[in-house]
User: What shape does this take?
Amino acid sequence: MAHRGTLAVLCLAMLAVAVSAQGGDGDGYGKQPDGYFQYVNVPGHKEYEFGWNRGNPHHYISRYEQAKDHRFRTRVKWADTKGGYGEHYWEYNHAPKGYGKGDHKGGYGKDEHKGYEPPSYKAPSYEPPSYEPPSYDPPSYEPPKYQ
Assistant: This one.
């Protein structure tokens, strides 16, 4: 039940940001999506998607994310009027068998994750530097003599 409350707050916060966001005409460069927006959709349990386009006529960034059961994917794009452009895609869709049901027997074997082993070499040790800090004798100042 707490998840619905958290989701409602998230949706309201994103709506508030979308309402206060600056709009744009979209004429900056050819790869920019039409308009600026934000949205969230939660059609069911363990399922959501959201996305947004933000920017101005000089640069923009766009993000889309979707998750359903054990599958997750997201896409980020950005561009600017000086020729900068990039895209990143991530997808995760191969959770171990029984993931999320409390049964991890079908997943990874016991010997596959042995944990951390300390390094087999001796770490270097360093002595602090030995030197005398420089001394500073400020110059003497005598006020000018007036005649």
Observations:
- Residues 118 and 124 are 15 Å apart (CA to CA).
